[in-house]
Structures are given as structure tokens and as C-alpha cells.
Amino acid sequence: MKARERGATIIHVDPRFSRTSAMADLHVPIRAGSDIAFLGGLIRYVLDTDSYFKEYVLNYTNAATLLNEDFKGPEDLGGFFSGWDPESKTYDPSTWSYEGGAIASPAGQREHATQAFSEHQGGGMMEGEPQRDETLEHPRTVFRQLMRHYARYTPEMVSRVCGVPEEDFLKVARLLVENSGREKTAMFCYALGWTQHNAGVQMIRAAAILQLLLGNMGRPGGGIMAMRGHASIQGSTDIPTLYDLLPGYLPMPKARKGELTLRDYVDSNASDKGWWSHFDKYIVSLLKAYFGDAATEDNGYGFHHLPKITGNHSHFPTMLRAYDGGLDGLLVMGQNPAVGSIHSGLQRRALARLKWLVVRDLAELETATFWRDGPEVRSGELRPEDIQTEVFLMPAASHVEKEGHFTNTQRLLQWHDKAIEPPGDARSELWFMHHLFKRVRRHYAGSQSGRDWPIVNLAWDYPEHGPIREPDAETVLKEIGGFDIATGKPVAGFGELKADGSTASGCWIYAGCYKDGVNQTRRRDPGDLDAEGGWVSPEWAWAWPANRRILYNRASADPQGRPWSERKKLVWWDEAEGKWTGYDVPDFPPDKPPDYKPDKDAKGMSALAGTDPFIMMADGKGWLFSPAGLMDGPMPTHYEPYESPMPNLLYPELDINPATLTWNRPDNPHQATGDPRYPYVATTFRLTEHHTAGGMSRWLPWLAELQPEMFAEIDPILARQKGIEDGGWMVVETARAEIEARARVTERMRPLKVDGKRVHQIALPWHWGFGGPSPGDSANDLGAMSGDPNVSIQEDKALAVNVRAGRRSGETTERLKDVHAASHAEPAGDAPSENPGSS
Amino acid sequence: MTEIAIERDDAQRMGFFTDTTVCIGCKACEVACKQWNDLPSDGGTFRKGGSYDSTGRLSGNTWRHVRFVELADAGGGVQPDEMPDLVATAAGNGSTIDVEAAVAAFDNWVFMSDVCKHCTNAGCLDACPTGALIRTEFETVVLQPDVCNGCGYCVPACPFGVVDRAPEDGRAGKCTLCYDRLEDGLEPACAKACPTDSIQFGPYDELVDVAERRVAALHARGVEGAYLYGAADAPEQQLAGGLGAFFLLTEKPERYGLPAQAESPIQENVVPATLAAMGAGLLAAAGVAAAFLWEKSR
Amino acid sequence: MSREFRPAIGTPASPDFGERSGEKVDLHIGQWKDGRWSYLFGDDTEYRTPPTQVPDIEAIREAAREAREGELPDVVQGPVINAPVWTWEVPLYFWFGGIAAGSSFVALACDLAGDEDSARVARNVALAALMPSPPLLILDLGRPERFYNMLRIFKPRSPMSLGAWALSAFGGLAAAAVGADLLGRRREAKLLGGANAIVGGYLGSYTGVLLASTAVPVWGRSRLFLGPIFVSTAAATGAAATRLALVATGLPVGHPTRRALGTVETAAMSAELILSVINERRLGPLASGLEHGRPGKLFKAAKWAVRAGLGLRFARKRGGPGVHHVASLLYLAAGLMFRYAWVGAGRVSARDDRAVAEMHRAETHGT
Ligand SMILES: Nc1nc2c(c(=O)[nH]1)N[C@H]1C(S)=C(S)[C@@H](COP(=O)(O)OP(=O)(O)OC[C@H]3O[C@@H](n4cnc5c(=O)[nH]c(N)nc54)[C@H](O)[C@@H]3O)O[C@H]1N2
Ligand SMILES: Nc1nc2c(c(=O)[nH]1)N[C@H]1C(S)=C(S)[C@@H](COP(=O)(O)OP(=O)(O)OC[C@H]3O[C@@H](n4cnc5c(=O)[nH]c(N)nc54)[C@H](O)[C@@H]3O)O[C@H]1N2
Ligand code: SF4
Ligand code: SF4
Ligand code: SF4
Ligand code: SF4
Ligand code: SF4
Ligand SMILES: [Mo]
């Protein structure tokens, strides 16, 4: 809103006309799941009209870099990239690398790259010297390849695929170009409309390419902003709740034959050049934080005691394992998979096959009551007396009842104090884990067994205070923020971390958040906002890394180190002082001059030139083409969603992203592309009035009254065709389930003309579940389990469905009753059940 | 002074300036008000009409209400029988109407956070027989729940449909402009919660000043329709003598459920109505007496 | 379907008058400083025109006039006003109160005409009709146990306040008058009765003023008619009730008081009918409340009852006194129906969003 008041033009690309659209200058309805075609169209427009920011592109991106001769793209291979292995249904990315500069893929070390920092990981492994053609003429330059790849993403094609009229598309394109360049920057804000697709990662890649072409990266008012969800969801990837990462995006070690030593691990993850040459300092400091004095150089700082991963342990495989009887127990802390995870009917049935289940939450939510009142129980498929799962429901303290920090989407760590004591038995997560661990450790007291070593030796001596013996959260933060072991003095930043075991830090990227012994995250001084550059507010909380507010901000200055423009000034090279300076903390070695050229065999950060702003990438360039790190191709390519009423118009041979993670099983049936039984596109969305799976809103009368019932938004034309009345009941169905909802017939939904045909879209809020004071059917009962190949995220934003007027015929998930009954009859045992590969 | 009022020399008129052009319809204000004032929920009713407004109106339990104004051609959601031609076309029955255009007639969505206007000439205050409604030192109109006996007269006396009797409580209820917070120097809960400053709170004169400049800025930006509802009017145009809580609107007032003109119905009607009634009373009495005397004399 | 969500916590809070507690709290800011700082709309936004540029007040007023004058928009998204909350007790009270007021007129007239016995009966009727009024009114309160707050203040501006006082005064006087009658103190009774007729003049009409002084179109726009209509009803029903009471106490046929009462009820009822019809015509679309729904039906029925009564009055010559009694009963019933119709019409009218909006669009705030 502030941006709008300052004159920004806001464009909203969304299937629905929402409250956001009402605030925007332009709303462009789009067919759910077709965004890569749209973004690809924009990339083509920018290249085609020569509107890219030439100096930026040439100097700061890998546009001029030559690609390997063996690289082939979808234009050559009918939708595939080179390296496809139909056997394993995965790509071998070795042909995607640069000419002369091999990017050794980390494949083999890690199951797959993961969320936010996949590129950094891939970005670290460069060897050799890539070839460049500064004229951009060579057909194998990234730039030419990009042009070739997107040549067919014409406005006409965009219109056919996305249902966006050409003139609307061109308007967006023009606005974007007009608002980028030296004087202006444009920003992309995205969230689930892009991410929760099988091509979620590629969606963001497409935006990144566009922003690099337009010169909008590392500059104020630019970038691509992930509107990250839960409070501190960013924190939960920094210090991850993900199975394949250690804190600070260090990869989780993978089990292999023979012993994996710390040295092996560091060797396969660190790089010669660029940022990741410091890898050893981070992992050793982490191990010192874990095991304290017990971590010594001789025992590899306890590295081999870390758990190792043996496969894909993400949410779906884990739940399927539970379903197949391979999992005893589950701790569910602040999550509601019985409502929030896709194919929730299967999720609930999986819960019913556990031996025990601990649910820590604010309300008695569906995940804790599925055995009593879930749809499968109501339909008679499951009987409470048969369900062996013992459910422990533990009341959790809410955020106002405990202290700690949230890391927001801007990587800002903001401390919050406790406002009131938690009521009754409600306890914080910290309390729970702390006291749980203390009790567990009691059982291992004195054990000499190597297996028990990590439990016995974990450095765990947090002070407790207050009547409920709450562990001290600031002490935990201090440990995360890093300190010198000898003196106990907090470090000023990750630059002070050492690989010799003399420092400890629970998460290297947070190092410095307790600088000078002061809780930096607790600062609340916005500073003088009207002063020049005052809007940076460096004294407000603390941002990782190093309190830097905008990443890669070296790119806000031209190659000579001068701001691109006075208006968009952020950091610059101060010739007199011989260092980088500016409003923000420069994201660059402070004294590396712009004209610095590395030697042939320079190592570490000195291998990057003074004009290489993207310091986390091995070549210091923004990647228009990803030579490594992605599982499904180096350039975003349009594929249809996993289930779509439409064929792929761009690559007729290949409807679906071939690398999609799928689990083809009778209990997870798949609707083929164009299945005439499911002719409409459905998407899911959130309401301002509710929060995610409802635990924090459906139980609150003040919020529940604002959106009292599950509904579906449909356009008036479809409503009329189907005899659906505004406010009346309607049913939405897929191969998995049918759910009923109130019909909200509204002009805010508009049918789109896609490839000459009218396509109707249905939008479903997904906040409802069968429990609580405001029950309703769950949109997630409808979807199929499938996953983005890079991060296994579910595809819940584009479904193919059918609708009708009236109420459902049975319980939501009853149509798979027999399939489940059969699987109960013959439990699959421990055999791995996943079938990675496309259908 | 015909009103029961608290006077304090150093106090000034405080009010709200609600700028609908920056309201995002999040209803945070509505919830904040309920929470601060501990008001019960109204119960959940799914309302037709396409909008997300489930509380519907200001009431004894809803002292802030965010209205959703859907600006389709016909407005306020789609009646099934309003669109036969669209459907015919969609079904390919050869109707000539342009479906895209018709559905695209949906124009915009406007939100407006409605509240008690704290009128200069407050009908509710004029009506209240118990003195439960009073004028405070901030020139706001506050209902003292410990005095109100639920007579209900303030309800039809408010020309803005604000105050109402809460069925389960029996007393009337309406916005207090957070009198209890103002006393402590805090801004009202709703304004505090508003993430976009659509609700601005402050000394009345300052707010009018800001509002005037805002309208000028919007006009300059091409939003010709922007106008102030309840402030800066010429005396003969004033709404209820001027509103302590006034609005910046872009559509005609009735689209937001607001009257184009308003006055305290008491101040407007009591005198003429009483005169007429008393005149009629005298006439009636005289008539009765005359009838008797005439019958007697017969 | 409506879902029941229990009140979140407790009951609505009362603002804590006069007590300041905030200053004792940590981090208390005070002086509304929290509200005066705006991140969003600082000087760096277009939100405020540069201070040098003085906004053109005329243009601003013109924009408001543009929006507020002229035709109603196609859609009125109501509710514009809240519907009155009064339930069945109120019209019933209006009816009883009207009878009481009307009988007090009759008592005075009888006294003036020298028919002291009839005056006594009329005073009894007045008291009897008054008796149910306070309980009815109290029953209608949202908080009946606080009825005494009605007399907490005296507020001339509020018809309800004046009405409460008038009702109390009337009750006191009526009781005192009847008491004086019982004690055989004719003179005092006469004086008290006379005083009561004056209070009755207000009691019988203020209800009309009370309804007229609201934002409800059908009431507000009838402001010059409601008082007279209500007074007419009061006079008619009072006369009819007293007439029947006198008949019951054996006042002979042809007695001037009986005749006079007949004339009064007929004349008053005719006046009421005529005023009502004129008013309804005058109101045009704003009369919707009187024309639709249950109140509309009642209103129609009431008008027919009056017409029937009037008809019977003239048929009396052939039918004898019995027919006249039926007419009196019809008037009483019509009076009751009128009361219910008028109160009910307010609800319908308040919910007729277009009518409400139309009323305020109308150029003049006319009669
Ligand atoms: N009030 C409230 N706030 C929340 C949450 C909440 O539940 N309630 N949840 C929090 C969480 S966990 C998250 S992750 C964020 C999520 O925040 P958002 O991403 O904003 O959430 P959604 O509403 O799920 O999806 C965004 C929009 O994507 C559109 N969309 C669907 N499919 C497509 C598509 O294929 N292409 C395009 N371009 N758009 C599409 C939908 O119509 C919807 O309007 O919000 C956070 N904030
Ligand atoms: N169809 C569809 N499905 C989706 C999405 C979608 O857009 N469409 N969005 C997806 C997204 S982005 C997300 S993030 C997930 C969210 O899905 P979930 O994480 O499964 O659901 P939540 O309701 O957010 O669960 C959080 C729970 O934490 C509880 N809680 C709050 N504070 C605390 C605390 O301090 N301690 C503890 N122990 N508990 C606490 C809340 O009461 C709530 O029940 O859903 C995903 N599912
Ligand atoms: S009349 Fe209505 S708007 Fe004015 S102060 Fe009273 S309740 Fe508020
Ligand atoms: S309901 Fe209460 S506040 Fe309203 S007029 Fe009656 S006593 Fe006054
Ligand atoms: S000022 Fe207070 S009482 Fe009035 S609407 Fe805002 S929060 Fe509610
Ligand atoms: S006024 Fe503010 S808080 Fe209320 S709905 Fe609008 S933006 Fe939200
Ligand atoms: S809940 Fe509202 S105010 Fe809080 S972070 Fe989310 S959008 Fe902002
Ligand atoms: Mo999320």
C-alpha cells in the first residue's frame, strides 16, 4: 500500500479477483498452473524487444558464458532436456554445464537439492575456467540458448495457454519493462500461486531470469519476494525442520557404503572458489555447538555421530510409510496434516496405522481427533475401537506466552518477549524439547555405548527460570549466534568462525546476532526514516547474514562501483577510502575494488572478480541458465499440472514435467491429462480471516464468524449451466474424493478463453476440516500426492475437478473405501512404496 | 447545554478519518474492536451475494463493520435470473451478448470500515431517556452500559443504523471511540489494528486537514470520484452537524449503506411533530367538550 | 444455516469511566502518540499533497455534493438504518395509553357538562387502562430491572423521557383522582381529573411524536400527521371504552353523555381515517411499511374496521343500541390494529433500504 501511495504500479496475476486485485492497478486472470508460459512469454518479450538491461546482463549474469556442446533442450528433444534417463525417470545434469568450467553436481551426495538454497549448493562446485563470448553472438552462449528456448513463448501462445488476452499480456510486459532499468526497479512478489506446483522451483527460476535480464536483482525495490507463510517459516528453513538440511543450509550427510568422515563430507560440499570455500568453518562450529567439549579434532568433532539420510524422508514418503505400517510413532508439533496436507484422506488413514502420535497444539484439532470423528470413521471404514494409535494431545503455549524470535521473509530476526504466562499445562516448544531431552538423557546416564554417544555428550545445559522451569531462550540464541569457546565471547559475524574447534555456532548464517553480548534481534530503532537511505533501518532487529538487508547488493552499483542511478543508490565503491560503503551492509568483500581481476589459480573468495556480485555462486554471476542444482532442467519449461484438463500446447509430446515425483498406487489414483470426467480447473487459496488448517482461527469465534462455512467460488456462467445457486450447496469431485461447499457465485471468478475454449475455474479455500466449532469439508481431500522434483512440495494450486449442484452422496473420501479396505487386508510391510517417476 | 456531557478544559474533539481508498478489507479492525470490548460473536451465517461479509451490519455486538461493495453492473452479487443471456451464449445457443464483456462488467471491489459517526447532532444521544448516552470531553458519544435499560429508542433515532440493542444482553451497544483507551492516551483498538492506516485517529481538526489534502491529492491523481462524507461541508450540507468519524468515499454514499443527507431526527422532528400533536390534542379536547356541551344542550 | 459461536469471553465490557490505569503500565506511551505516527503515510508518499499547496475547499465540497445530490444509485447496499427493536408490548401500551388519555378527556368533558357520575366512571376507565401500561413498557425493556432509570433524568428533548414522566404523572393523577372519588371528595377528584386531561393531552399524542422523531421513513416523514392521528385514536378509543363502560354501568340509551360519546368516537375515528389516507397518499413510496407485509394487512384491516364502524353507526337507527356497541368494539379493535400497524410499519420501512435512501435523497426535508 505504501508502494502504491508512492506511485508504484501494482499488477496482480491471479486466477481469482481477490482483495489484492482490488488494490492493484491491473488484475490479470490466469489459468492456474500456467505461469511458466506467462513468465516465459515475458522473458521472450524482453529479449525480443531488446529491453534487457545490457550492461547488467553482460557483466553480472552468465549470459555470455558458453554452454557445453552436448547440451540439448526441449526444442530439440520434444520437451526433454538432455540427460534424461527413462529408467530412473531422472535427469543426469552433466550435459547442462559450462564449456570448459565443469560444475560438479552434488548428485550422489544428496537425495536432492532442497528449498531456498539449492543453487548455492550447486553453485559451489566449480572447477576450471568457463568460456565467455562478450558479444553474445555465439549460438552456445546462455543468452542465445535462452532466446532459442523461449522463442515459441509468443504473446499469442501465452494467450492460448494461459487464457490471458494478448493485449493484457502485452500491457503487463510493457509495464514491467518501463519500470525497470537504471532509474526504476520492479519487484516480483509471489507465494503459493507459484510454489505449490510440480514446477514450483522452476516458476521461481523463471522470475529470477526475468529479474536478472531486467537488472532488478540486488537493488532496492527489486528482487523476487517470497511471501513466506507462517511466522518464522523462514526460520524453520534456516534452522531447518527439513530432513535433508543441517542449520545454515549445510546438507544433511547421506549414508553411504564405508565410513563417511568429516573430511569426506567437507570435500564433497566445499568448493575451491567462491563462498563455499569456508564450508569447514561452519560445520565444525556447528558440531562444537552440538557436542561441546566432547567434540575434538580427533573424533572429527563427533561428525560421524550425526544421523545420515538414506532416501527421501520428506512428508509424503514418511506418511506413506506410516500408511504401509512402517512407522511406529509421530511427533506432530504445530501442524495439522489431517487437513493441510494434500490427499488428506490418505494422511488420516496413515495416522490411524501408527502406534502412537503426539500432537502439540493450541486446539484439539483434526490431527488429534481423526480416530473419533474423521470422515473415514463416519463412513464406517475405520472404527475407533480398531484404531491402535495412542494419541497424546499436549497443549502448546502460543507465541505471546513464550519468548523467542521470528525470522521473517526478509531474513530479519525479530525478538519477542513473553506477554503472559501460558495457561494450565500449556508449554513452549523449547520447554517441551528441553525437558524431554533431559528425561531421555537420564535413561542413558553412564552409557559407554558408541550408539549412545550423541545423547550422552550433547551439550545441553541451558539455564531454567520461573515456576515452570522454562529454559532461557536468549541463551539458546546466544549459542546459535556463535561464540569463542575459550572466552565465551559472542562472535561479531561468521567471518570469525574457525575450523579449528575454537568457536561454536548453532547456525553460521545467524552468527553475529548476539554480537557484543547484545541480543541484536531485540533492537527496535527504526532510525531516522527521512534521512538519506534511512529506510534501510539497520538498527531495527537483525538480518542474516551480517545484518545485510538486501542480498547481492553489489549489483546495485555498476561495474565501476558507482550506483546505477542516484534514485536507486544502495551501496557503492568509495575510491578515497578504498572500500565498499553505502546505506546497507555491502554483500561483498569490503575492500575488493571493482576492477579486481582474480589470478588463474586464485582460491576461495579471491577467485571472484570485482564485478561478480553473486558471491554465493561459484562464478559470481547471476544464473540465467542453471548449470547445476536443479533436478528438472536448467531452464524453466512449461508443462501442464499433474492433473489438467488441457494438453501441453507448447510441447505436445510431453504433458507433465517428466521429473515430477509421483506415487502411483491404487490409493493415490491419478487422473490422466484431459480426463473428460474432470473438465474444470480448481485452485485453492487462503482467506484473510482464517489461518491455514484452521487451528488458530476456526476455533476462535471472532474469526470463525467472519467466514463461517466452507465455500467454493465459481463464475456465474458455470453456476447457471450446472444449476448451482448462490449460497446453495455444491459438490466438487476428483478421483480421490468429493467435498461439498456453499456456492459463492461471483463475477470475481471469470471463465477464461484457453486455446479457443472456455475454461471455468473454481477456487476453494482450504481452511476447513471436520473438527472444531466451524467444521467443513477439506479441499485437500481432493488432491493427489505428487511432488516437485526439487523440493517435494505438493501440487495443490492446480487440480482438475468436476462440480455439480447439491450435496455429496457419502462421506468425503468414501470413494476410495474399497481400495483402502483391500490394502488393510494385506499390509505392505516395510517394503519401500515410493515409485519416483512419472506416469 | 441540552446534552449530558463531560467537560474538561484541556480536552479537544477527537475523531476518525476513514480513508476507504486504502482499506484492504481485512477486518482486523472489526476483530480488534470485538476483542478490546469483549463483544460476543454474532454467530456465523453464510451470506449470499458473493462478498466476504458475514457480519453484514453494525449491531449491538458489532461496533466496527467492514462493508464489501461489489461493483458489478447490477451490483451486490449475481441473481441467477439476471444472467440468462450469458448462459445461453455460454451454452452456444446463439445469443449475441458478449459474455466476456458482461462478466467483465465486474469492475471493482471496495471496502469500507463503518463505525459510529459520533455526530455533532447525535440522534441517539438526543433520544436516550435515561442519560446512558452522553457526550464526552472528546466530543464523542458514549453509551454507558451500566445506565442503559435497553429501551431501544436510540436504535431508530440513529440515522446511520449504528446503535442497536444486543439481543442476548438487552442493552444497546455501539462504538465508544474507545473512551477507556482515550482516557489513557491510547489510540482506539481498531485504528491501532488497521494495517494500512485506513482508519486514522486524531484530533478532529487535524484529521479534517489531512482529509482535505488527501482528497486534493486523489483528485490530482485522477480519482475524480473521491469525496469526504461528513466533514468539510458547507453548513447547509453538513451531515448531522458534522461527523466526528468521517469518511473518504469514491462511490455514492448509498453504495456503502450511508444516507445522502442526515440529521438528528429528534432535532429535526420533535418540535414540528409536538406542535402538530399538541395542536391536535387541543383540538380534540375542544372537540370532545364541544360534543358534550352540544349533546347536553340538545 | 447459522452457526452458533459462543461469545468469545465474558460479556461486553464497560468503559471504565474516569479511571486511568494506563499510566502505571510499562512502555505506556500516552498522548495518543501511538496513533499519530504513520509509517504508511509519511511525507514520502503521495498521501498528502505538499503542504505548500492549499487544497481547494470548494472543489472538495463540490465532489461531495456531486455524490450526495441527484439520483439514487442503482443499488442501495443496506441496511442503511437499524430496524426498531420494539416488540408486541409497545403497540399494546400505545393502545392502553391512548384509551387512558382519551378517557381522561371524556372525564373532563363529563365534568364540564355536569355529568359527574359519568366523569367518575371515565376516571376509573382512565386508571384501569393505564394500569397495564407500566408493566408493558417494562417488559419491553432490554433490561427490565433497570426501568427506574427512565426517571433518572428529565430530558425535554427526548419524547421518551417526557413520555415516561407524563406516564408517571398521569398514573399518579389518575390514581389520586380515583382515590378522591372513592373518598367522595368530588371537588378534588374533578381538579385532579382536569389536570390529568392536560397530561393526557401529552400522553395521547407523544407516542406519535416519539415515532415521528426517528430516522424511519414512514414515521419520520409522517411527523405532522402522526401526533394528530394518534390523538384521534386516543380520543376515539377512549370514548369507545368509556361508552361501553357507561353502558355496562347502566347509563340509559339516549343519555346525552352516551350520545356525545358516540359522536366523539365517530368523529375522531373519521378524522383518524381521513388523516391516515391523506398521509399514506402523501408518503408515496415511503409508505411501503404501511402497505406491505403484516403491518400492511393490519393497516388495511384497521381501515376497514373503521369504515364498518362508521357504517354500523348509520345502521344503528334500524339495528338498535346493540349495533352501536359493535361499532364501539370495532373502533377499539381498529385502534389496536392501527397501533400494531404503525409500529410494525416502522420495522418494514426501516428495512426498505431504498425507501430510507430515497427519503434522504429527497431535496427538501419536507412535511
Ligand atoms: N490470513 C492468513 N494469512 C496467511 C495464511 C493464512 O492461512 N491466513 N497463511 C500463511 C502461509 S502458511 C502462507 S504459505 C502464505 C501464503 O500466501 P499466499 O500465497 O498469498 O496464499 P494463497 O491464498 O494460498 O495463494 C495465493 C494466490 O494464488 C492464486 N493462485 C492459485 N493458483 C495459481 C496459479 O497457478 N498461478 C497464479 N499466478 N496464482 C495462483 C490463488 O488464487 C491465490 O489468490 O500466507 C500466510 N499468511
Ligand atoms: N490445498 C492447499 N493445501 C495447503 C496449502 C494451500 O495453499 N492449499 N498451503 C500449504 C502451506 S503453505 C502450509 S504452510 C501448510 C500448513 O499446514 P499445517 O502446518 O498442517 O497447518 P497449520 O494449521 O498451519 O498448523 C499449525 C498449527 O500450529 C498450531 N500452533 C500455533 N502456534 C503454536 C505453537 O507455538 N506451538 C505449537 N505446538 N503449535 C502452535 C496452530 O494451532 C495450528 O494448528 O498447508 C499447506 N497445505
Ligand atoms: S446518531 Fe448514530 S452515528 Fe450518530 S452518534 Fe449516535 S449512534 Fe453514532
Ligand atoms: S437503549 Fe439505552 S442507550 Fe438507547 S436510548 Fe435506551 S437507555 Fe439510552
Ligand atoms: S473506537 Fe473502539 S469501540 Fe469504536 S469501533 Fe474502534 S475499537 Fe470499537
Ligand atoms: S479499515 Fe483497516 S483494519 Fe479495517 S478492514 Fe480496512 S484495512 Fe483492514
Ligand atoms: S497477520 Fe497481518 S499484520 Fe500480521 S504479519 Fe500477517 S499480514 Fe501483517
Ligand atoms: Mo505456508
SSE topology sketch:
The complex is a heterotrimer of chains A (839), B (298) and C (367).
Chain A: H1 2-5, E1 11-13, H2 19-23, E2 26-28, H3 35-48, H4 54-60, H5 74-77, E3 84-85, E4 90-91, H6 118-123, H7 142-149, H8 155-162, H9 166-178, E5 188-190, H10 192-195, H11 200-214, E6 224-226, H12 235-238, E7 245-246, E8 250-251, H13 262-269, H14 279-291, H15 315-323, E9 329-333, H16 337-340, H17 344-351, E10 356-361, H18 366-373, H19 375-378, E11 390-395, E12 404-407, E13 412-416, H20 429-443, H21 453-457, E14 464-465, E15 470-471, H22 473-481, E16 483-484, E17 503-504, E18 542-543, E19 571-574, E20 579-582, E21 661-662, E22 680-685, H23 701-704, E23 711-714, H24 716-722, E24 729-733, E25 738-745, E26 752-754, E27 757-759, E28 761-765, E29 786-787, E30 799-805, H25 817-825
Parallel strand pairs in A: 1-2, 5-6, 9-10, 10-11, 22-28, 23-25
Antiparallel strand pairs in A: 3-4, 7-8, 12-13, 13-18, 14-15, 16-17, 19-20, 21-29, 22-30, 24-25, 24-30, 26-27
Helix pairs in contact in A: 3-8, 3-9, 3-11, 8-9, 15-17
Chain B: E1 14-19, H1 28-37, E2 44-45, E3 64-70, H2 84-90, H3 99-104, E4 109-115, H4 123-127, E5 133-135, E6 141-143, H5 154-157, E7 164-165, E8 172-173, H6 179-183, H7 189-193, E9 199-203, H8 204-221, E10 227-229, E11 245-249, H9 265-297
Parallel strand pairs in B: 1-11
Antiparallel strand pairs in B: 1-9, 3-4, 5-6, 7-8, 10-11
Chain C: E1 2-3, H1 33-36, H2 57-68, H3 89-113, H4 116-130, H5 133-140, H6 159-182, H7 186-212, H8 217-220, H9 223-248, H10 256-283, H11 288-291, H12 293-319, H13 321-351, H14 353-361
The complex binds ligand MGD (2 copies), iron/sulfur cluster (5 copies) and molybdenum atom (MO).
Molybdenum atom (MO) binds at residues 229-230, 233 of chain A.
